[in-house]
Amino acid sequence: MATGNARGIVLLAHGSRDERWREPIEAVAARVTALDPQARVVCAYMELAAPDLRTAAAALVASGAKVVRVVPLFLGMGKHAREDLPLQVQALRQAWPQVDFQLAGIVGEEPELVDLLARIASKS
C-alpha cells in the first residue's frame, strides 16, 4: 500500500506450525485484494505462526493506514475470540490512537458462511 492509502485489513487466524495450514488463509487474502485493490490486506496469527496481530498492525500503520479492520477467521466463539482478541485490539488502540481499529465479528457467525458450509456438507 502506498503511503497515504488509508485502509488496511488484517485477516486473523489461529496459526499452526505447519506451513501448508497458511495456504487457505493466504488464498482468502489474495481474494480480498482482488475484490478491494485499494486496501492493503495482511494475514496475522494468534499463535504458532508469524506475524502476530501487533506486528501486522504495525506494518499497516507504518505504510499509512488510518483505518485497520481486524477480521477473525474463526468458526466459533472460543477463548481467543471472546477474551484474547478484544484485549489485543484495545492495546492496538492505545499504541496508535490516531488509527481507527475496527474489530469485525468472527466469520463463523456470518449467515453467508453458515449457508456455504451447509451447502458444501450436503453435496453428493
TrEMBL record:
Highest taxon of source: Bacteria
Protein keywords = Lyase, Metal-binding
Classification via SUPFAM superfamilies = Chelatase
Under the heading CDD domains, the entry gives: CbiX_SirB_N
PANTHER family on file:
SIROHYDROCHLORIN FERROCHELATASE, CHLOROPLASTIC (PTHR33542:SF3)
**Protein name as catalogued:** Cobalamin biosynthesis protein CbiX
Organism listed in the record: Variovorax beijingensis
